[in-house]
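Continuing from the previous page...

OK, I double-checked the sequence for Fatty acid hydroxylase domain-containing protein against my notes and this is the correct one:
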Amino acid sequence: MSNSTAPIHESAALLYASTDFAKLNWLELQWAAWYLWIDNPIIATGLMSFLLHEIVYFGRCLPWVIIDATPYFRKWKLQPNKIPTAQEQWECTKQVLFSHFTIELPAIYLFHPMAEFFGMSTWQVPFPPLSSIIPQVAFFFVFEDMFHFFAHRALHWGPLYKHIHKVHHKYSAPFGLAAEYAHPAEVFILGTGTLAGPLLYCAFRRDLHIFTVYIWIVLRLFQAVDAHSGYDFPWSLQHILPFWSGAEHHDFHHMAFVNNFSTSFRWCDRFFGTDNKYREYRARIEAAKKAGMSPEEFKAMEKKFAEDAEREGIEAEKVVEAYRYSLKTKAA
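Thanks. Re-ran it with the corrected sequence; updated structure tokens here:
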């Protein structure tokens, strides 16, 4: 797949002058039609990137909003006594939109030049084959998970937590819309992991198409929203792929404040021992299941375990926040 050597300000008509449209599939034709319609590759790439993010994010959140409003699904709610209210969901949505329109939208003019600077194909058709797309997306998942693990742990350090990451921890029982409820600085920090993988890959390999990056971003958005959904269904992916984190893994992080810093996988937390309290919690739940309790007794016991974990988390959060206070006291 060749990369663009044409100046980025050239019109789409010139960019596609030597393209044989008869050999393109339907999706590739729509891709070219978009660039031809906008007639400015910088705006076309930036606007498509922004619209993709908004449509996929809120489109994926919508089913979870409906599920939260439907009592039938409470049996699978990880924290069934904490259902987000319509007011909470609206306040969350406003903060998410604020971040999107103050950070992402102004940066749309940077997407195309940055992509081409790293040698990424943008307007070009045809698209790369699946044999290229699948391993690239797999690499992006692994890279982002490792980046997120270390960045997320750093955000739990006193000053960074108190002034940045605490915003995201507003909800001890997360819901889909809260996936990107965060301080703008956190959006930038953790968002770097999503984009750095493709950019670094492209800088070394120079065979990446932005279409592949869009597939990666769509899957990453699904993962982020689902991990914050607060539901663990029997058909959830973690029951099929045991190394997948999922909502059951990440929900504990919001409830207990500690442990489970990864996004997609459980590997880093297991390797660095940052899932010890989580595994103890799950072991207590499993032991209670085998104790022959009635459904009512088990629910009461499960609620107690969750309350204990949350209470310990509140104390752990206080310790983290006090770290900044102790520095100010010492400086005085």
